[in-house]
Design a protein that fits this description.
Blueprint lengths: L3 E5 L1 E4 L4 E7 L8 E7 L6 E6 L5 E2 L7 E6 L4 E6 L8 E8 L4 E3 L3 E6 L1
Parallel strand pairs: 2-11
Antiparallel strand pairs: 1-3, 3-8, 4-5, 4-9, 5-6, 7-8, 9-10, 9-11
């Protein structure tokens, strides 16, 4: 079972920037899918971004503002979030999908104040 530990997040004003990172307990293979989902208050969890060996894919709501990067050697992947909006508020969950299963982080809170 892969353990994922998230860091970052917090409180930021509208238009500000924030990053959240996820560190895996095992080496990341280049073809593992990594990414982030989020859950806003009172809403279902939604997919935000994902990446395997190619370019990251993004939800329409964050494309152009969010950037996903990964460092397989350090076993980390990071979501850089710019021009944050109040709708970006929620709990952000990282995930890693290997050959056999998908693992999730415990979640980290991102709050964007207007």
């Amino acid at each position: 079972q892969v353990q994922l530990v998230e860091s970052g997040g917090g409180l930021v004003e509208t238009g500000g920037s924030l990053s959240v990172s996820c560190t895996a307990s095992v080496p990341m293979e280049s073809n593992d899918m990594v990414g982030w989902s989020r859950q806003a208050p009172g809403k279902e969890r939604e997919w935000v971004t994902g990446m395997t060996t190619g370019r990251a894919q993004y939800a329409d709501s964050v494309r152009g503002r969010f950037t996903l990067s990964r460092d397989n050697v350090k076993r980390t992947f990071t979501l850089q979030m710019n021009d944050l909006k109040s709708d970006d508020t929620g709990i952000y969950y990282c995930f890693l999908e290997g050959r056999l299963s998908r693992s999730w982080g415990q979640g980290t809170q991102v709050t964007v104040s207007s």
